[in-house]
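so i finally got all the pieces together for this one. its two components total, 468 residues if u count the protein bits. some of the lines might not be protein, just check the labels. i wanna see the whole assembly predicted at once instead of chain by chain like last time, that was a mess tbh
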Amino acid sequence: MADAPDQQLDELRREKQAAEEALRDLQARVDNAQQLANMGDYDWEIASDTNRWSDQLFRIYGHEPQSFSPNYERFLSMIHPEDQERIKALHQRAYATGEAYEMMERIVRPDGEVRYLSSNGQVVTDENGSPIRMRGTCIDVTDRVQADEERERHAARVHEEQTRRQAALEINDSVVQGLTAALYALELEDTDAVRDYVRRTLDSARAIITNLVGPIEGPVAPGDLIRSSPTNLGG
Amino acid sequence: MAESPELERARQERDAARDAVRDLQERIDYAQQMADMGDYAWHVPNDINTWSDQLYRIFGYEPQSRHMDYGTYMAHCHPDDRDRITVIHQNTYATGKPFTLTHRIIRPDGEVRHLLCNGEVVNDQDGQPVLMRGTSVDITVQVLAEEERERHAAQVQTERMRRQAALELNDTVVQGLTAALYALELEDTDKVSGFVRQTLHAARAIITDLVGPIEGQVAPGDLVRSSASALGS
């Protein structure tokens, strides 16, 4: 037994309002989450070359949300010139193969600021397998990229310092001490001892050299050590 | 019996509104899967934590398969990170300032993942915190790649220094000692003494150059062995 038409009408209108409210809540949730994560999503319809960007994606690019129509040419013009060819090739491959892609690209904001984006995307095909859309996400990872660069510099410094200290220690323990002993033996005019110390020190020095460059290119042979830059180490 | 046009229009409008919700939900789910990002909303008064589907997947669960309160969340955080997370959450709760942090979680199968998280507190009209909400992005792949890059950067920089030190040792110490051995053969003691002194001076200069930029001139006791050495003598 159906409700009276008036009741049905009220019910449908309530349901419509509930759906509109749910849409508003969902929209607020996605906007907030994307702002917090500095992440945006896009959906590019290939045939019409229209690209729907989320509000946060506009902000990441340094623009007011929904302030222009980001077609492909416009999108490409905002990519860092050195990254444009790579991005185009990546998109073309995704388009041809239907495979998902991930990339890191630089964009240039209207004020000239360069930002690093970690992006991905996927081609959506119609029932015949023809590409119709390309959709995906971008996260602004500039802060992380800069922190990573600093960490790499720091790791390199720390490691070099450790290696320097160790090499210095080895030279001190074997070469300097061996030569000091040789000098003592010279004072005592003990030629056999002098020869012994000098030979042993020479062996030590060669062992240290092998150890310094050994892990990289095996034992040192004549000609291996070619000076690649001027040194400030004095003889 | 046919519907009245008014009823039919109302039905169409309701369906369109419901379609819009479904489309947006689909768009959110898709984007979160692509970005490996999830969002959460923690209702503080009743300790109910709403998680998006992808957040469940990041933690190694089927979407919406279990109840997540603050304790359950914390139990999944790496034990070494828990104190730091608690302090940051409390600070945000007290000050209302948004937070960003990276921490590790442990999935039910034991796999460790690295998350980049953020959050903010929403207050009611009396200024009481009612909601803590935010997002988590799984950045495990990026963290591992960065660790590898750090190792590589360290190796490249050190390799240059190693080659240079080896070159210096060869040019000065090895050649000086070889000359000293020749002089010994010739029983020219003055020359032997000269070469040995010269070589000793050179070796000390190399040491100063190696550690000088870090700690100035090397004095006795400066070179304290901090780890076992692989260099034999």
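Chain B has two domains: 35-138, 154-215.
Confidence is low (pLDDT under 50) at residues 213-233 of chain B.
anyway lmk what u think
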